[in-house]
Design brief:
heterodimer; A: mainly alpha; MetI-like fold; B: 285 residues; ABC transporter permease (chain A); transport (chain A); transmembrane (chain A); transmembrane helix (chain A)
Chain lengths: 334, 285
């Protein structure tokens, strides 16, 4: 087997392992918890006045079946898997009788769009600035830019989003702070609709960029400043290779490899930040769906969104792993 | 130890600023033990008072003093962060050192598990845990869950250090001298790993505090225990921004940003101290 196939087999194995462990974990969390979701939903529904005890008993049975909580733990586990594979998490209780899966398929494109665009921007800009700052260490403008992104880096996503919301929503209201697109527009490939999506996505995307850019900047700068002292770079400098070429071909390209691995490793965390930002800006993606599901006590929705997020993140990591050989010839050639 | 601290304070401006900021915030948080009002009493004071000589940072719509609330809140938030950090350090240490020292197939298997856990999105899992626990959720459970999710990166880092220690001369000596694996790990290798632990601890603390702020802002923790995120949660519940009670939301945000800035400056300057390469490049070498 050549190097590439070996690499591929390992990545495919890793992908299935992530999905398997993630779904098992989701099952264990919901099963080991001391709170019975059926009782919880029943008490939520009988909160407003007395209900006939027989009706409550029927409701219990219906919910038990709906949530797949019949039989032994192993049977429940098998049932859970079959629901995941069929993509059937039952109807959502908070927007009955819409199936959880159709809520998720409506929300998923928003999250993917927001995350892909903002992440591509963050990663490119952070790495570019970081590489430049590592290569031209005495440049004052780059030093200042570095100080700015590094100061923002440790602040949690919610706080950055909230400050942007206060600035652009209240102090200087120029950008929409809620929703994914204007309500009265019909979705479609019209310029108005696309423009509306872009304008509504600006603040959430800007928050995600500000949250994420610092870590790429910091690690790229330290990678580059280590590579700069490597023999091959010193040799190229002495040989009179143009500094532009040294920067892009000798330094930045080598430093990019660990940064791509870093992207795959931190995707789970980045998704977490997006959940919070989506909720804050009322963006119609997976994050808002998840948090609203929690507030409304919608068991099937929360479980469905969590499971699908685990799978979605695993797929995204797998795609990055597939891109990796394209820029690292060592994997390609074995 | 004190000499290192003195030198860092004298020659490293970032460390100095970070140290002063973190120290000041710590003292401010510790002051809540002398607070004139109980932490979680509400409607004790006239609500919605702007900052004044009597209430320095104003009062909330729930009739609490913002200053003393914040003091208790920062203390609780820091306690949470430290708990997560300590627990997750032990996990990262055990996993990283074992994996690095044993090497081979064990290392491969452990690191595969590690990488799998890294790829899981933390926030949805934490939210699921909160969702199934609900009213029984308390901060120690939340801290434990966060710690279980927060050690993977650092285990990898510790493993790489342990991997290089494994082939060193003194390790072979220890093996021939008949030391057992736990003995070698604790008595021979731990001292080399300690600096990495300190550095990762700072980063982990920042991460854990950020997590606590995020979850309690959304109301996904014990909302009656004052925390920095919890203050913003209650301010949002009372529509503080729209009602113009800016001090309820502005001061907690400023406190969080200062705390993060202080911890972050400490983290990067300690990293610089531990990694001599970055010290060299700082000197222009």
């Amino acid at each position: 087997m050549d190097g590439f196939s070996k690499y591929l087999v390992r990545r495919v194995f890793q992908f299935f392992l992530v999905v398997f462990l993630g779904i098992t974990l989701a099952f264990l969390i919901t099963n080991l918890s001391p709170v019975d979701p059926v009782e919880q939903t029943v008490s939520l529904m009988t909160n407003f006045g007395a209900t006939d005890p027989r009706a409550v008993e029927l409701m219990r049975e219906a919910l038990r079946e709906l949530y797949g909580l019949e039989g032994t733990v192993l049977e429940q586990y098998a049932a859970f898997w079959s629901r995941v594979l069929r993509g059937d998490f039952g109807p959502s209780l908070s927007s009955f009788p819409t199936p959880v899966m159709s809520l998720i398929t409506a929300a998923l494109p928003w999250t993917i769009g927001l995350l892909t665009l903002s992440l591509a921007f963050t990663w490119t800009l952070g790495n570019l600035l970081g590489a430049l700052a590592g290569y031209f260490r005495s440049n004052l403008a780059l030093k200042l830019a570095g100080a700015a992104v590094m100061a923002l880096h440790p602040v949690p996503a919610y706080i950055i989003g909230l400050v942007l919301l206060l600035i652009f929503g209240f102090a200087w209201p120029v950008l929409p702070i809620s929703g994914g697109a204007q309500m009265n527009l019909t979705p479609g490939f019209t310029w108005d609709y696309i423009r509306s999506i872009l304008i509504h996505g600006t603040l959430p995307a800007l928050s995600l960029v500000l949250v994420g850019i610092g870590s790429w900047f910091i690690s790229m700068r330290s990678l580059v400043s280590n590579i700069v002292t490597d023999d091959h770079v010193v040799y190229a400098e002495l040989g009179g290779v143009a500094s532009r070429k040294i920067f892009s071909q000798y330094v930045a390209r080598n430093a990019l490899l660990p940064q791509l691995t870093g992207l795959a490793l931190s995707l789970g965390n980045i998704f977490g930040g997006a959940v919070i930002i989506e909720f804050l800006f009322n963006y119609p993606g997976m994050g808002r769906l998840l948090i609203q599901g929690i507030y409304r006590g919608d068991y099937s929705l929360v479980l469905g969104v969590t499971t699908m997020s685990i799978i979605a993140v695993a797929v995204a990591v797998f795609i990055i792993d597939l891109v990796y050989p394209l820029i690292d010839p060592r994997v390609r050639l074995g | 130890m004190f000499k290192i601290l003195r030198d860092l304070l004298r020659y490293n401006t970032e460390f100095l600023i970070g140290f002063v900021l973190t120290g000041a915030i710590f003292l401010f948080a510790a002051a809540h033990f002398f607070a004139p009002y109980p932490d979680n009493a509400i409607y004790m004071l006239p609500p919605d008072m702007p900052p004044s000589a009597e209430y320095w940072l104003g009062t909330t719509s729930r009739g609490q003093d913002v200053l003393w609330q914040m003091s208790a809140a920062i203390w609780n938030t820091m306690t949470f962060g430290l708990t997560v950090t300590v627990i997750s350090r032990f996990l990262a240490l055990a996993m990283g050192m074992t994996s690095g020292y044993l090497g081979g197939r064990t290392d491969q298997a452990l690191m595969t598990i590690n990488d799998t856990l890294i790829a899981l999105p933390n926030i949805p899992i934490l939210l699921l845990v909160y969702f199934v626990m609900r009213d029984q959720m308390s901060w120690p459970i939340l801290a434990l869950t966060a710690a279980l999710l927060g050690w993977n990166y650092d285990a990898r880092l510790i493993r790489s250090v342990a991997l290089s220690l494994r082939t060193r001369e003194f390790t072979r000596h220890a093996v021939f001298a008949g030391m057992s694996v736990p003995q070698i790990l604790i008595r021979q290798h731990l001292p080399y790993v300690m600096p990495v632990i300190f550095f990762t601890a700072m980063n982990n603390l920042i991460w854990a505090i950020g997590l606590e702020v995020t979850l309690s802002v959304l109301g996904f923790s014990d909302i009656n225990r004052p925390t920095v995120g919890g203050m913003i949660y209650w301010a949002n519940q009372h529509q503080a921004i729209i009602a113009g009670i800016w001090w309820w939301i502005a001061f907690p945000i400023i406190a969080i940003v200062l705390l993060f800035l202080g911890l972050f400056l400490l983290a990067i300057s300690v990293n610089e101290y531990i990694d001599p390469r970055s010290r060299l490049s700082r000197m222009g070498g």
